[in-house]
């Protein structure tokens, strides 16, 4: 069919003389619209084929009649009893090579401009019948492309029909009138400004004198304020450094955060720097069992964990056990996999507006565990579960959260990280957690307080977590020194990365 349409269209074109071929080109371009790089047919009404040149109007009618007789174009009447022509088949518009050559020669931008101009003319004429004064606002006197259309009118064989030509000429006329009006207004404004300038010049000297005096006064105030601020920061820094030293024997974690906050007030405080190092080495000592939940910087993610990360994993099995689809109001499932032993079904759901939710279906209890994992998609793999499938690790923004997979208990514990996390997994024995942050660093948490401890258990997990790292809502406050005020102004610990300064706290 497409080949027959091409052949028939070429036959009609080849039978025309030079002027009629040009008219056929204009007609076919008017019946084509370019949308997303694809050509589509468009309806053209009979009044759009009327040109200022009567001979061109006659040639256009002749070509349209021949295309209708060849069944390439169909003529019809719409509900408003307006006669139109349009391509009989969209395949003609999309597949006729000669039409594509005309489109390329004309240019996509010019073809788009022609379609916009045709619509603007229709809107203008519709309003001009009832409200002629308001219709003038639809003219293109302020359109930056009016110059292109004005230049096209200078060519004898331009593509604009009679209505479009009148619209462009009216727009050009209105633009010139508005410019003359603007020039007159500017001239009047310039005269007024000249008079005002004489008065302003007399006031400027006095204003400069007053401004200079105000500037000197402001500089004196700013200097005094800087002195007061510096003294205040030094006092706060010294106070926090002292508290860090006093807290070190009982809680190195809090001592480290106090020293870190002290340096943020006064980076030159040597007492705070010493307290920071003392707290760091005290926290990093694994022998006393207090550092099990403080991260240590690792060289890289273990190869076994890296190789197990699926790419867009979607695991389907023929399931006979009870299962209820996770179906919130909006969004969809983007990852689906079973736990290593098949006891649980993990699904990662993305909300319509971005946040991701990690869900774990327990086939025994027929319940879901739901954890909001943040705004960034993170990968999950079989190593997200412990080998005994009791726990699942979920990176939530800048904290590693370990949840009981069965979903009946609250979160086992939260492990703070220095930056936003991009992935987190258990090792093959389930004794350590490896996580990677957004800046490419890899960190390791030992879950037992020593390198050779036993695997975590439900009875000890929550107790150790509460002893080693305070929960997010119980961090000490800079201002009141209370452990439960909820201000959360301290940054996370950085016990293994002292090469760069502590992160800035907002």
Number of domains: 2
- Low-pLDDT stretches are 284-292, 449-506
* SSE order, one letter for each helix or strand: HHEEEHEEHHHHHHHHEHEEEEEEEEEEH
Compute the CA-based radius of gyration.
Answer: 38 Å
User: Going across the major beta sheet, what is the strand order?
Assistant: 6-16-15-14
Determine the N-to-C terminus distance. 69 Å
**Chain oligomer state:** single chain
Instruction: Report the sheet with the most strands, covering strand number, pairing sense and barrel closure.
Output: 4 strands, antiparallel
| Total DSSP E strands | 16
Bulk shape: flat
Class from secondary-structure proportions: alpha+beta
Q: Number of DSSP helices?
A: 13
Strand proportion, as a percent range, falls in: 15-25%
Record keyword descriptors for this entry.
4-stranded antiparallel beta sheet, 17% strand, disordered C terminus, 2 domains, 506 residues, single chain, 13 helices
What does this structure look like?
The protein has helices at 2-14, 18-30, 54-69, 90-95, 97-106, 108-128, 132-135, 146-153, 162-247, 252-265, 270-283, 303-307, 458-468, and strands spanning 32-35, 38-41, 44-45, 73-77, 83-87, 296-298, 332-338, 344-350, 356-362, 367-374, 391-396, 399-404, 413-416, 421-426, 432-437, 442-446. The strands form 5 sheets. A 4-stranded antiparallel β-sheet has the order 6-16-15-14, with no helix packed on it. The protein has a 4-stranded antiparallel β-sheet with strand order 7-8-9-10, with no helix packed on it. The protein has a 3-stranded antiparallel β-sheet with strand order 3-5-4. Helix 8 runs antiparallel to helix 9. It folds into 2 domains: 2-170; 284-469, no CATH class. Strand 15 (432-437) and strand 16 form a beta hairpin. 44% of the residues lie in helices and 17% in strands. The longest helix is centred in the middle third of the chain and has 86 residues, at 162-247.
């Amino acid at each position: 069919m497409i080949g027959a349409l091409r052949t028939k269209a070429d036959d009609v074109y080849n039978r025309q003389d030079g002027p009629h071929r040009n008219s056929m080109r204009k007609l076919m371009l008017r019946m084509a619209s370019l949308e997303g790089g694809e050509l589509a047919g468009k309806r053209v009404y009979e009044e759009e084929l009327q040109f200022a040149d009567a001979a061109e109007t006659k040639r256009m009618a002749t070509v349209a009649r021949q295309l209708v007789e060849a069944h390439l174009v169909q003529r019809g009447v719409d509900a408003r009893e307006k006669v139109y022509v349009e391509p009989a088949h969209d395949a003609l518009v999309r597949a006729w090579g000669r039409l594509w050559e005309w489109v390329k020669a004309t240019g996509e931008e010019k073809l788009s401009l022609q379609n916009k101009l045709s619509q603007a003319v229709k809107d203008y004429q519709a309003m001009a019948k009832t409200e002629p004064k308001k219709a003038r606002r639809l003219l293109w006197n302020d359109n930056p492309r009016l110059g292109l259309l004005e230049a096209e009118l200078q060519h004898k064989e331009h593509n604009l029909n009679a209505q479009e030509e009148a619209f462009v000429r009216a727009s050009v006329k209105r633009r010139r009138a508005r410019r003359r009006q603007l020039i007159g207004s500017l001239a009047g404004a310039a005269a007024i400004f000249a008079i005002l300038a004489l008065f302003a010049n007399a006031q400027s000297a006095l204003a400069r004198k007053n401004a200079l005096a105000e500037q000197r006064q402001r500089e004196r105030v700013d200097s005094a304020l800087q002195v007061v601020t510096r003294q205040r920061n030094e006092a706060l820094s010294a106070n926090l450094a002292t508290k860090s030293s006093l807290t070190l024997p009982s809680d190195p974690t809090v001592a480290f955060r106090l020293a870190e906050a002290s340096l943020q007030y006064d980076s030159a405080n040597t007492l705070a720097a010493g307290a920071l190092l003392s707290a760091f080495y005290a926290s990093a000592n694994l022998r006393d069992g207090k550092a099990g939940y403080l991260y240590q910087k690792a060289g890289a993610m273990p190869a076994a964990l890296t190789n197990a990360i699926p790419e867009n994993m979607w695991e389907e099995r023929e399931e006979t056990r009870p299962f209820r689809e996770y179906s919130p109001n909006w969004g969809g499932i983007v990852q689906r996999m079973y736990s290593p032993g098949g006891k649980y079904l993990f699904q990662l759901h993305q909300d319509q507006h971005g946040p991701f939710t990690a869900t774990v279906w327990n086939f025994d209890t027929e319940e879901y565990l739901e954890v909001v994992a943040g705004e960034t998609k993170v990968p999950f793999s079989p190593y997200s579960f412990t080998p005994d499938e009791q726990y699942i690790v979920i990176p939530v923004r800048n904290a590693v959260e370990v949840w009981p997979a069965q979903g009946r208990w609250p979160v086992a514990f939260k492990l703070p990280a220095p930056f936003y996390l991009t992935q987190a997994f258990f090792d093959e024995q389930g004794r350590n957690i490896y996580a990677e942050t957004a800046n490419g660093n890899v960190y390791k948490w030992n879950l037992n307080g020593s390198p050779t401890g036993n695997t975590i258990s439900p009875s000890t997990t929550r107790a150790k977590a509460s002893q080693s790292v305070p929960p997010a809502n119980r961090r000490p406050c800079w201002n009141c020194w209370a452990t439960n005020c909820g201000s959360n102004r301290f940054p996370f610990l950085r016990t293994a990365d002292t090469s760069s300064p502590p992160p800035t706290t907002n």
